[in-house]
Specification:
Elements lengths: L8 H20 L13 H12 L9 H4 L2 H30 L4 H11 L7 H30 L4 H16 L18 H16 L1 H9 L10 H25 L11 H15 L14 H13 L12 H15 L6 E2 L2 E2 L2 H25 L7 H12 L14 H27 L17
Length: 445
């Protein structure tokens, strides 16, 4: 009998995430999952399950009050599965893509970066698990201790809140058991600091973490192009985002103005870090100036590192395209960085991902606009947040009509699974041909 089950890695990944969403939806509809003891409506359950599995954080109901403790635990389990599954599968896919390189090039890069091999699948999953447990466990204990000391909540409650927010931060999920996110801790660096650490570690991507750890004792270690673009690109986005947010919001009485000078910079830094995919809000997102909302859209769309828990089109994609533009300006035939030439197929993949992602966001926005009379800037923010799996919102998610919520669900799923599967499909479906057509140069610009 012929086997009709999908075998392409991209198809398996997409179906696995879809199956997890369906299972999560069914479980969230059970009476024990909600605080009221009544089963959640199917659209509410589907929206929450999709947001959790796709580690987005957009919600149509308040997580801390609508769901029971068991329901909140289920939501946490879903975004833990979503983050761990994406981190592991994306890493393995990256190794599979790397397997398409010539053997000599692969061995050279592996010896320089101490990268994992595709054959060691168990080692990949094991190391992802170790990094996840260590980071989440350490941050959870720190947050719990801080909450127990700072507030009057008991240790059991502090441990629960600490664990929930630690897992949510590492997986860049953006879910919170507090109705106002982390706004109540906007001036507390002992709370925001560990959260930012978990967000950054989860968002860098496992290949980068592995390489940095392998080179931790080398003073002049040679990083791969991927790690170089991810680390320095992420640092530049965080710093520029922090500066821009402070300049725009420092005199806004609804956001940063009531805070002290140091607290303003802390809030701006956390907002910049969170904007790229985490989804936690230390200030009222709906009160931000229009310039800040547009800056958020840019940061959210870019996202974090590849093969991590972050969303967006990825830092490497954007900065690789900037390298292409810079090389074109300088009249260079090759795109180069630190003594390495970027392969032409990778350049085409980056361009394809950026254009198709932009098309997905534009299409989603065009479909939603006729369904509601909400302001365009808030709709755009919501659509970009959904596709980039960030989870920040100006507060309109629950006000969207069912049809628009359906579009948001599709965008969350597409943004989380589609970009990775698209990158894989573009990389491994290259069929070499024994001939080339004559070259022609159309006029551009």
């Amino acid at each position: 009998m012929k086997n009709h089950l999908p075998t392409h890695p991209a198809s398996v990944l997409a179906l696995a995430f879809l199956a997890t969403i369906v299972l999560g939806t069914a479980l969230l509809m059970l009476p024990w999952a909600s605080a009221s003891g009544e089963g959640a409506p199917w659209l509410t359950a589907l929206f929450t399950a999709t947001s959790a599995v796709c580690v987005t954080g957009l919600v149509v109901v308040d997580t801390g009050t609508y769901w029971s403790p068991l329901g909140q635990g289920l939501v946490m389990a879903l975004f833990q599965l979503g983050g761990f599954g994406m981190m592991t599968s994306a890493t393995l896919m990256g190794l599979l893509i790397g397997g398409q390189m010539k053997l000599r090039t692969r061995l050279l890069l592996q010896s320089e970066t101490h990268a994992l091999s595709l054959g060691d699948v168990r080692s990949v999953a094991r190391m992802v698990l170790v990094v996840t447990v260590v980071c989440e466990g350490g941050v959870a204990l720190w947050l719990a201790a801080r909450l127990a000391i700072k507030t009057d909540m008991g240790w059991s409650q502090a441990l629960w809140h600490g664990a929930f927010h630690s897992v949510s931060a590492f997986n860049n999920a953006g879910f919170s058991t507090w109705s106002d996110g982390v706004m109540g801790h906007v001036t507390d660096g002992w709370m925001l600091g560990p959260l930012m650490l978990a967000i950054v570690v989860g968002g860098l991507g496992f290949p980068v973490i592995t390489e940095l750890w392998a080179n931790r004792r080398k003073r002049h270690a040679r990083w791969s192009v991927h790690t170089t673009l991810t680390v320095w690109g992420s640092a530049a986005l965080v710093l520029l985002g922090t500066l821009a947010l402070w300049l725009v919001e420092h005199d806004n009485p609804r956001t940063l103005a009531p805070l002290g000078f140091a607290d303003q910079w802390l809030a701006a830094l956390f907002t910049s870090v969170s904007a790229r995919t985490a989804g936690f809000n230390a200030v009222d997102i709906g009160a931000l100036e229009l310039e800040s909302l547009m800056l958020h859209c840019v940061l959210m769309f870019i996202g974090g590192g590849s093969a991590g828990t972050a969303g967006g089109v990825k830092v490497t994609t954007v900065f690789l395209l900037l390298l292409i533009v810079w090389s074109e300006i300088r009249g260079r035939a090759d795109v180069e960085l630190r003594g390495r030439r970027i392969a032409t197929p990778v350049q085409r993949q980056a361009l394809s991902i950026l254009l198709l992602s932009g098309a997905a966001v534009s299409l989603g926005l065009l479909v939603i606009i006729p369904m509601t009379e909400l302001p365009l800037d808030k709709l755009m923010f919501e659509v970009v947040s959904a596709f980039a799996t960030v989870g920040l919102s100006t507060g309109i998610t629950a006000d969207l009509p069912p049809g628009a919520q359906g579009v948001i669900i599709a965008l969350m799923y597409t943004g989380r699974v589609g970009v990775v599967t698209l990158a894989l499909a573009l990389a491994i479906n290259q069929v070499p041909r024994a001939y080339r057509y004559p070259e022609e140069k159309p006029i551009v610009g």
